[in-house]
Amino acid sequence: MSVIEEKFQRLTPERQRELLDFAEFLEYKEQSGELQIAEDTPGFNFSWRGALAHLKDQYTSVELQKKAMEWRDNDASR
Q1: How many domains does the chain have?
Q2: 54 — phi, psi (to 5°)?
């Protein structure tokens, strides 16, 4: 069994689902090419940091990442 599988097995079912959601999120980013953007890309900054803090009790970090992708996709299709 791989290290990842061992760690996965030690998680609660809820955390296992969260980990699977995150893996799907990373897979989506990989396929869409979003992971190719380096942090030092000109014009990229973290001015939005903390802007979604009020949602932390309502959503998990993975759910927020998915929501952000949906919002970005909706904006791009307009």
Answers
A1: 1
A2: -70, -15
